[in-house]
Every structure is written in C-alpha cells, then in structure tokens.
Amino acid sequence: MKIAVAGTGYVGLVAGVCFAEVGHMVTCVDVDENKIQLLKSGVSPIYEADLERLMRKNYDEGRIDYTMDYREAYRNADAIFIGVGTPERPDGSANLTYIAAVARQIAESIEKECLVVVKSTVPIGTNDKVEQFINDFLVNDVHVEVASNPEFLAQGSAVRDTLQAARIIIGTESDWAKEMLMKIYEPFHLPIVAVKRRSAEMIKYASNDFLALKISYMNDIANLCELVGADIGEVAQGMSFDSRIGSRFLNAGIGYGGSCFPKDTKALEYLAKQHGYELRTVKAAIDVNKEQKVILYKKACKRLITFHGLKVAVLGLTFKPGTDDLREAPSLDNIPLLLENGADIFAYDPVGTDNFKKLYPEGRNGRGSITYVERPEEALENANLCFIFTEWGSIAALKPYIYQKFMKTPLVYDGRNIYDVNEMRKAGIEYHSIGRRQSFTPKYMITQEELRIGRKNIRNQNKISNHRSGRVHRILPVEEAAGAKATSNRVG
Q: Which terminal residue of the chain has fewer beta carbons within 10 Å of its beta carbon, N or C?
C-alpha cells in the first residue's frame, strides 16, 4: 500500500520505517531540509536501537523515501499517517497547531480516496474535528475519512515495540476505514483491537496515565519504606508475584520523564477539568513525581553545608537509558539547582551529552560550572559526592570499589537503586538510594543545623576555608561537627 507519513520524530519516523519493513511503499514528510538530507543519507536524528539499520535497508531497497514536498507525497497516497508533535501548553493542554497545519496540507493535496490516520497523542474528540476540518477545506471532491491509531512506543525500544507490539489499537467510524487499517497492519501479524475513534484516543491516555500512576505509587511507598525501615526492593519483589499487579513498573526511583508520561498526565487532567471533573488519581501522580525528582537533592542539602566549591559527579543526563532524549529528565530538575548553589559539576552520559550542551554549555554557569567527560571515572575523580540519574549500562557496570578508588569523599546518591546496599557498605561508601536504608551511619557529615550553631567556631578552626567566598574544600566528619557544636554551646 502507498503510505505517506507526516513528521519524522519518534512517532513518525519509526512508524514509516516499520511500515516499509513489512512491505509498504512509504514517503516521510518533514519541513526541515537538513533533516531530510540526513535521513536520505541513512542517519537518524534520534537515538533509537536498530532504527538506522532499517532506514538504510529500506531506503536502498526503494521502499522508503523522505521529502519536503507534501503535495507530491499526499497526492496519491492510500493512507496518510500524522505523527507530528502535540507539545504541552503552559496550562497542561495539548498544542494542536502542527496537527492543524498537516490537516490543511492534506486537504489541499489529496486527489483520490484517502484514509487519514492520527498517530499523534491528541485529546479525546480531536479526530472528529480533524475529519471535519479536512472535509471543509478539500480542494478536490474525494472521499476522505480520519481514523485514530495511537502509538505505544517506549523510547529506546521503539522499533521493537512497533514490530512486536502487544496490540494495535484502531479507532474508526466506518467499515471502510476499519478494513483499510486492517489491511495496512495485516503484515505485522499482531493482535488488533478495533474500537470507535474516541475510545481509541482515550485508550492512549488511560494506558500512559495508568503506568505513570504505578510509578508514582511505588515511589510514594518507597518514601514510606525509608521511614518505617522496610526495603522497597523486597516489597516490590513480593508484590510482583501477584498476577493482578504484575512485575513491570515496580522499580522505585527519582520519577518518570520523557515525552509521554509528563505530558499525557497533565493533558488528561486538563481535559477532565474542562468537563468539570477532577481526576484526583492522576493529579496525585503528577504531584508525587514533581517532588520525587528532587528528593535526593533535598537529602543532600540536609546532609551538607553547601555545594559551593564541591566537585559533584553526575552520572546520566537522559530521562532513561537507550535514548538521547532529555525531555522531563531528572537531570534538568537537579543540575540547575546544583549550579545555582555553586557546584562544580562533572557530567557523564554515553549519548545525551551533545543535547545537554545545547542547554548548558560547558564552563561557568551562574554560580557554578559544568564540565562534560567521556568516561564515568573522569566524573568521579576527586569528586566530593555523586548523583546517579540514569541507569545506563556503562554506569551500572561500575563496581562499588570504583567510587571508593576515585572519589575524594565516597558519598553517592543513587536515584535508580543500581547497587546493593550491603555491597556499598562493604566498600566503605556512604550510599543513599530510594526506599532503602542508607549504607551506614555517615562518617562525613555536617547538617544545616550544625552549620548554624557552629559556624563561628568552624571558621576559627579553619575547618572550612574561604566560607565567605563560598569555597568548601572538604566535607567535615561527624565528630568534628559535633565538637564545633559543643564548643559553640560553651561559648554561648
């Protein structure tokens, strides 16, 4: 079948390449000339496993092409898939500007009967409006219908998730549209769930928001585990054997990110408000996630005097492994806070560094600085503390002794629970994670309260150099902080 795809981001490009892989003739459309040339050369603008190989294979075999000429691409297409972005507005609603622009182009271009399929995540009822819009602006008298076909991709495994999907959701209002989509997906040999358009739109939001709820629930339970002395890893393991719960999305951490969960939870909450309904469960997931992203930073603030002058190793910048996507990544919440408080950051990520540099160029940044390194050991060398934000394989492969060997002070805040607490204890590392006890009573410690009480005495004893200018050369051991506090009490 002859298929056109509008948009060459995660949704559009992956869909187009996978359609070509099963035998369809595909033309992908984008407005960026540089991106089109990049795609024609077999280079993907996104980091996604196996994508470039399939791009080159299907381009060489003549089943896929890339163009800016939407009129030619849409003119005689049997089906046009819309995979453009629907970014979040400040109020949480979805911005449908790109959807409307593509719909207008389609109305101006098609010359034969055509099925328009919306793969982008859109609010319930959008497909109805797109169909009406296209028919209102049709230049040629042809039959056109709109169907909903939401994607369920996980970044880092998008190709596999398309070719080996658990199910294909198609939302149509006619037998003709349903049969067209069934034919398009027949070569995939996957389960197809056929529903009405609005149900298909809701399935997408309900699915993503349920997973976000599951993540936030486990993070909430993890925080309680720390208070009562339970271990979230053991709790999750015990829960996972219940088939009603399942084993996926039970890992506690520093919150969800990416292009889907944050946007889709806010969009559904906004939609509910527009209909006079409060979606309390989804709102709770959003609130928990917001707090969870900075929970380790807050722990570190209680643990230390200040970040001024400290070398802080940051391991992982992307929101998850297997992608270069930074959208809603925990690093974007924590690194600005560290820089504002004078930290000298040394950051490592195997694929996300170039994207992060666009946001935070290397060098001085506000009161702090940021340096990008090519190996995690470089970030750890002489570091006063370390934050782990992404569980990349190259980070998880680091043995506990590496932190002890390279760091000036082996103080680790692990947002992904990569390490075994006992192993970190044996290695002599002060280790803070999510929902588990810390590795041992800190050897190096000074709290904000101790700073307030003992500030004058600490300065006099030169245990902190240049505090007035914000330079801290070491983290004080507990016994020194306690001594400073006692001396201050005798004086005062």
A: C
